[in-house]
Amino acid sequence: MKKLLNTLYVTQPDMYLSLDGENIVLRKEEKNVGRVPLHNIEAIVTFGYTGASPALMGYCADRNIALSFFTSSGRFQARVIGESKGNVVLRKEQYRISDSETRSAKIARNFIVGKLYNHKWMLERMTREHGLRIDAERFKAASIELSSYIREVRHCEDLEQLRGLEGQAAAIYFGLFNDMILQQEQDFVFHGRSRRPPLDNVNAMLSLAYSLLSRDMAAALEGIGLDAYVGFLHRDRPGRISLALDMIEELRGIYADRFVLSLINKRVITKDDFWVKENGAVLLKEEPRRTFLNAWQAKKAEKITHPYLGEKIAWGLVPHAQAQLLARHLRNDLDEYAPFLWK
User: Fold this and answer.
1) Residues of the binding site for Mn(2+)
2) Quick one: pLDDT band at residue 1, thresholds 50, 70, 90?
3) Is the pLDDT of residue 131 over 70?
4) N or C: which end of the chain has fewer CB within 10 A?
5) Among positive and negative, which fits the CA dihedral 221, 226, 228, 231?
6) 245: nearest Cα among 228, 263, 265, 224
7) What does the alpha-carbon distance between residue 253 and residue 43 come to, in Å, rounded to a whole number?
8) What pTM was estimated for this model as a whole?
9) At which positions is Mn(2+) bound (predicted)?
10) Number of C-alpha atoms within 13 angstroms, CB side, residue 54?
């Protein structure tokens, strides 16, 4: 159980939520295991299948407290909410900003600042920890270049120019990605991003990790009342979760890429865990895919200190925290969106 930005997150499995006066009561196996006053709670997010009492759902509906249900793996299921005026106002502001490329750029640039900052951190960490195994001078030069791009992005007000800067900076980072593979180098060679389909072992893992991260982010946005399909950097396209793709930009490297690199470097996944389709697509076999998914769930349970909020949370709650920060900015509670800048 974790209270974050006036939202209560119930992450323990098999927890039943009930109401006692002005308090939410957490029950497990017919025993009360927690109690939280509801007077300052704006939303409740629960992961699992046990459920909540009708009394609690009615209380939350009457007081406009969003009660969101997710599976234990983080997939959004449903949200119980009363009068929808809060979410309507929030979504209308989201749509208005999305319709304006200038206003969209002012939010989107913070996604990219977060992405480049975290890429820079990764390169600098490699230099510190593995300076004798890599070309440290190349890594240091790339870090300096990324700093220059961050300054440009910070003041960019044009979406097309922003995409160009992001692409150039991403090329610098991915140009060193192969050097961050320290084990199984012959079996995991990265020649650049190939998406549809992934054409090598590394891209097969990156595509799966990005897909999982996108799903988690879309679920977090749904839980907070935002429209995952209406983005600022990624423009409207039928069936594309554009806002979720926007918001995972800052988490791709620090969350997904590091996860994939750890599975390779720790030899959790090996060359024998893949198969190749007739069209050249490279995919994980069934059992290694389960290993990958189990490791992903374990990663989500790891605790970190959120760099902006200063709160200790699980990695799996980072998308939810960032969705809340975006919603607060859209409501004018924050001057600008605070990206996830890993330290």
Assistant:
1) 166, 234, 249
2) low
3) yes
4) C
5) negative
6) 228
7) 30
8) 0.81
9) 166, 234, 249
10) 0
Q: Measure Cα distances from 154 to 18, 201, 339 in Å.
A: 46, 34, 12
Alpha helices in the chain, H assignment, sequence order: 54-62, 85-99, 101-130, 136-154, 159-174, 201-224, 242-251, 258-265, 286-301, 318-330
Q: Give the separation between CA 152 and CA 135, rounded to whole angstroms.
A: 26
Residue-wise pLDDT for 48-104, tens only, equals: 767 888 898 888 888 778 788 887 766 777 777 665 555 788 899 999 999 999 999
Mapped onto helix, strand or coil, the DSSP state of residue 310 is coil
Which tens digits make up the pLDDT trace of 230-255? 999 998 888 889 999 999 999 999 99
CA distances from 164 to 1, 112, 119, 253, 310 (A): 42, 11, 17, 18, 33
Residue 37 token pair = 């006053």
Give the burial string for 14-39 (b: 16+ CB within 10 Å, else e): ebbbbbeeeebbbbeeeeeebebebe
Residue 174 has pLDDT above 60, yes or no: yes
Cα dihedral 310, 315, 318, 320, rounded to 10, equals -120
One-letter identity of residue 296: W
CA nearest to 71, candidates 51, 42, 100? 51
Sign of CA dihedral 137, 142, 148, 154: negative
For the annotated binding site, the residues are: 166, 234, 249
Instruction: From 230, 225, 211, select the one nearest 68 (Cα to Cα).
Output: 225
**Integer Cα distance of 123 and 140 in angstroms:** 8
* Each residue's pLDDT tens digit, 304-336: 999 999 999 999 999 999 999 999 999 999 999
Contact 330, 90 (CB under 8 A): yes
Q: What's the rounded Cα separation, in Å, for the pair 65 and 54?
A: 14
Cα(237)–Cα(230) distance, integer angstroms: 9
Q: Which two tokens stand for residue 220?
A: 């977090």
